[in-house]
Amino acid sequence: IAFGIIESFLFIFLKEIGGNGLVFGLARFIMCMSEIPAFQWSGTILARIGTWRMLAITQLIFIVRNVYYTQLTNPLWVFPAEVLHGVTFALMWSTSCAYADAIAPTGLESTFQAILNAIHFGIGASIGGVLGGFVYESDGAVSLFTLNAILCICSFGLCVIAIVFDFRDEVLEKQGRMNLNRSTHTLSPNAAMEME
Description:
The chain contains nine helices and no strands.
């Protein structure tokens, strides 16, 4: 939902405060460029901190981004916030995909990825766009981004609950099994023959 709100209304808001096509293009470029290192390092970071901590960080940065938007009066100042897109999207998406893969029954990994994609980009983004439109129309952009920050606070709270109560982390469990299988395979007495 938070993603859908930003994608649907950020540039409309920027236009209202004096932004133009160049500002929109540069903002989108910065957003996309910030994804490259985030996607590159996401696996390493996920392996170190786990699913729930990673998602908590992404939600915390989403909160910062939305609060920052509520303070914008000059469209050029959007650029620093767009650097955070790498965390709020790329790290979140990598973690979500890894989680969907980890919980999927064998043979249904692609199906779970498709369901995740439909929920995030279809249902979630649509709800964000539609509900966001009502809020934007009646109360304006500042109220909308404030509401979005509140939604992210709720998501952050759920992640904190998962951390505090030590919810199972299927991603780390799957990585551990994969590492164990690799080390067992390479240490087996028949490893050299199995490789031929």
